[in-house]
Design brief:
Chain A: Keywords: Cell membrane, Membrane, Transmembrane, Transmembrane helix, Transport. The complex is a heterodimer of chains A (311) and B (283). With 311 residues, chain A is mostly helical. Helix content of chain A is 74%, strand content 0%. In chain A, helix 4 packs across helix 15, helix 10 crosses helix 12 and helix 11 runs antiparallel to helix 12. A two-stranded antiparallel ribbon of chain B has the order 1-2. Classes of the chains: A mainly alpha (311), B mainly alpha (283).
């Protein structure tokens, strides 16, 4: 390659303009190509991140710059009952939904990983919950959970399962369950389609060979499919954990953190404090409190990807 | 793979499949039926007699009319389209360039830069929206489409870069070298040889980025304030609810119509979308 570059420039009669010569140099070309990305990510990710840290150690409110207060904001939120509830909620929400999304997603992926009529069509439709703007589809769920006009209550009543109405979003525990259902609904397609892509790389001959040797379907799944699928599963789960942990839209639309602040997550509580009541620095502290966990998950993911690449 | 009696196929395949489809698609059916149902039928308690919630014999366009005549829904649609297209275009250009540099060029710190971009991929919007709102205000971008066109690439570029790196790695080095022996500069070889080969990847990244920016909510909610500047998700949320009163008919009609453009874009490129989705995870 170096030879061709040399002969290239020597053969030409007039030397190319300086700008072009610079672009022939790999390092300069790389620099030029990366500048727009670095500028945008620097301005709108790295810089806001630093600003967020600075903001969280001041007493800033909307319109008032505020003074340096050290860790007072963090001290305050850790003694705040609603913040503690939101921490608990966030872990519960992430844990429960991830288990269900993985189980149902894997099941759906296994169902899709076979030949049947209308397979492409089914797969396309299954992804809809993931594609349609979350806020808009969450409104459909909110309407389905409406205390007075709930179609779910209608169904349960007509199947004879309940006699009175269920006030889905009015009770703290039921509201949490409702939110969890919506998140599972939205996440299952993502899990299913990603895991399906993983399943399709597993050679069917492995399963056939095991079947001939007398392995039961459950044994085949546990000893062949699951270990081979594990790398994809890990990455999908870690991605989903990050997204779910920092989720905002579903709770914002379904309950707004209510009833009585019982269903807040980190993000919705940060929004309520910072934008709702204007305590910018306290809100920034709440949002930043997510960071250690997210950081941990990112580190696990990086180590895992590296390990897979090395193998 | 399910052998044996016919009933096994029903129990292990058809029944779960139908249940999955019902669970995943019912909310959309509910959206459609609510948006064409007259108000008189809509607000009937769930336990009233002779009430069939799943069908209506008197469909109406009233809610859609309300949406376009009494609200700024048409502007919201236009805003969302413009913002999604512009931020997708910016992200594609940046992502293709960065992906090319990181996957095919040798330069110092390439590895750590790649890792840094991957990490930004994992930064959720909710971590940064509060300081970012301040920065947007300081740059005097608040309440303009540019506040979103410039910030959406922060979660689109890392993904586009990551996906394009995969596609560029698959293009054989010889292809580029041939072009360079024939006298093409590095820049020309990239533009006319390598990038055209990776067009399927660009399409996947583009369609995925478009749906993501159409979907975005919290930045739009925080950065935009005047009703005529809003995007569909924010407009529907803030303008169709007055206090505790939900206008369910127009709300569902808005949700439906706000979903259709992205569903159409998706339906044309399902395969590319799936490639983008799975590529974004596999890396």
């Amino acid at each position: 390659m170096a030879i061709s570059a040399v002969s290239d420039t020597t053969l030409r009669e007039a030397p190319p303009p300086r700008r072009q010569r610079l672009l022939e140099d790999e390092r300069w070309l790389a620099f030029v190509l990366l500048v727009p990305t670095i500028v945008l990510l620097g301005m709108f990710i790295a810089y806001p991140f630093m600003r967020g840290i600075l903001l969280s150690v001041t007493s800033s409110r909307v319109g008032i710059p505020g003074d340096f207060v050290g860790l007072a904001n963090f001290y305050k939120i850790f003694n705040d009952g609603i913040f503690r509830t939101s921490v608990y909620n966030t872990f519960l929400y992430t844990g429960v939904t991830t288990v269900f999304k993985l189980a149902l997603g894997l099941w759906l992926a296994m169902l899709l990983n076979r030949n049947f009529r209308g397979k492409a069509f089914t797969r396309a439709f299954i992804l809809l919950p993931f594609i349609i703007p979350t806020v808009l589809s969450t409104f459909a769920w909110k309407w389905m959970f409406d205390p007075t006009f709930s179609v779910l209550n209608w169904l349960l009543y007509h199947f004879g399962l309940i006699t009175g109405r269920i006030n889905w979003l009015g009770d703290p525990d039921l509201a949490m369950i409702s939110i969890i259902i919506v998140n599972i609904w939205r996440g299952v397609p993502f899990f299913a389609i990603s895991l399906l892509a993983g399943l399709q790389t597993i050679s069917p001959e492995l399963n056939e060979a095991a079947a001939i040797d007398g392995a039961k379907p459950w044994q085949r799944f546990w000893h062949i499919t699951w270990p081979l699928l594990l790398p994809v599963t890990m990455v999908v789960v870690l991605f989903s954990v990050i997204q779910t942990f920092a989720d905002f839209q579903i709770v914002y639309v379904m309950t707004g953190g209510g009833p009585a602040n019982a269903t807040h997550l980190f993000a919705t509580y940060a929004y309520q404090i910072a934008i709702g009541t204007g305590l910018l620095s306290e809100g920034a502290a709440i949002a930043l409190a997510m960071f250690p966990i997210l950081f941990l998950v990112v580190i696990i993911q990086l180590l895992y990807i590296r390990r897979v690449e090395v193998r | 793979m399910i052998e044996g009696a016919r009933w096994r196929k029903w129990v292990f395949f058809y029944v779960p499949m139908v249940l999955f489809l019902l669970f995943l698609l019912f909310p959309f059916y509910w959206m459609v039926i609510t948006s064409v149902r007259p108000d008189g039928e809509l607000y009937r308690p769930w336990n009233s007699i002779n009430y069939n919630p799943f069908w209506t014999w008197k469909p109406t366009w009233e809610h859609v009319r309300y949406l376009f005549e009494e609200t700024l829904f048409a502007s919201w649609l236009w805003n969302t389209t413009f913002i999604a297209l512009a931020s997708t275009a910016i992200s594609l250009v940046c992502g293709v360039f960065a992906g090319y540099a990181l996957s095919r060029l040798n330069f110092p710190f390439a590895g750590s830069l790649g890792t840094a971009i991957f990490i930004t991929y994992l930064v959720p919007q909710t971590l940064l929206f509060i300081p970012l709102a301040e920065i947007i205000r300081n740059y005097r971008l608040g309440d303009t489409p540019w506040s979103l066109i410039l910030t959406y690439p922060t979660f689109l570029i890392p993904f586009c870069t990551w996906l394009m790196m995969g596609y560029f790695k698959a293009v054989p080095k010889e292809l580029e070298e041939c072009a360079r022996i024939d006298g093409a500069s590095r820049w020309q070889a990239m533009l006319y040889i390598v990038i055209p080969v990776a067009i399927p990847g660009i399409l996947s990244a583009g369609i995925f980025a478009f749906t993501l920016s159409w979907n975005e909510f919290i930045y739009a909610l925080v950065f935009l304030s005047s009703p005529e500047q809003k995007t569909v998700p924010v407009g529907v949320t803030s303008e169709l609810i007055r206090g505790d009163v939900f206008y369910w008919g127009p709300l569902m009609a808005g949700a439906l119509l706000g979903s259709i453009p992205v569903a159409i874009a998706y339906s044309f490129f399902v395969e590319h979308y799936v490639a983008g989705l799975t590529g974004s995870v596999k890396g």
